[in-house]
């Protein structure tokens, strides 16, 4: 019996064939950085990061040979590797845009005099300082081997890695569980992995998250409602201002929140793609599972305290003004500017409505 295969290979392969091949090989996203002779920062988005050896700890990156970042890196002999978290897509885009002002448009620092290159404190959840341990030109790129001198892993709320595959960005489907290194940049342990919320652990409610964020919002108290349609009929709110949140679970126990106008119907395929999970592995959450997110049925909210939850907003939300959305509780509704909600949640934006 014959089975479908990947197609009969055709050759000779060209650059675009390699691009097509590698687009099927998703990776994390890094910004490699270097300082030039005048101490100016250079950097570029890079996915050709590869572990080479554990002893000594060595990695490699492949950089286009005309890159000014490569020139700085070779001249100085050191470079930094910044691993971007899932909320840093804008930084990945900036550092792949050729924008000469990229370091003026993002926050960076040198933690101390031994920093091998710029550290992107806000956008990166892990940084390695490396020494150049060899270069090899291959075609139009240069392979740079880097001896990893020190590693820092930030295990704050932005722990899920940013991914790139199929020529688009995606978030890690159900949170990052990034193990910290044994030794810190300064020789101390940096292992401060934030514990993943246990299935039974209390989770901050969406309203508490909003309150501590400082984002302006108000809350309407009302009789308990079941669906968002209830908000229209029982609370008399305008349909076009209602944002509904649907809660999904992935096969590995993760959560995906989808926020869209109350009249929209979620396109499962697009949601699954945006969340980075196969469509067949996505199911709507049972009402009693909402408690794991600090929410109750009728109160599903696009704001969630759990950093491992993937949130996807329909693109139309970016064009909405004031919206009413769940607070976590069935008897309270949040009124908030859509733009501020987006700024707080930092969702993946997708055409979700079918
Ligand atoms: C997700 C992603 C990954 C990339 N990875 C690499 C890479 O590994 N090597 C490379 O040379 N360019 C890579 N690029 C392209 C560079 O980021 C882009 O050409 C950038 O403008 C280079 O900066 P420069 O002009 O300062 O050299 C990547 C782009 C994207 C969007």
Outline of the structure:
The chain has 354 residues and is α+β, with helices and mostly antiparallel strands.
Q: Quote the average pLDDT.
A: 85
Into which percentage range does the β-strand content fall? 25-35%
Separate helix tally: 7
| Strand adjacency order, main sheet | 3-2-6-7-8-5-4
What small molecules are bound in this structure? flavin mononucleotide
Which sequence of SSEs, written as H and E, runs from N to C? HEEEEEHEHEEEEHEHEEHEEEEHE
What's the helical proportion of residues?
10-25%
The poorly predicted ranges are: 175-200
Query: By helix and strand content, what is the structural category?
Result: alpha+beta
* Name of the level-1 CATH class of the largest domain: Mainly Beta
Work out the number of β strands.
18
The dominant shape is elongated
Distance between the termini: 39 Å
By CATH's scheme, which homologous superfamily of the largest domain applies?
Electron Transport, Fmn-binding Protein, Chain A
CATH topology of the largest domain: Pnp Oxidase, Chain A
* Proper CATH architecture of the largest domain: Roll
Q: Profile the largest sheet.
A: 7 strands, antiparallel
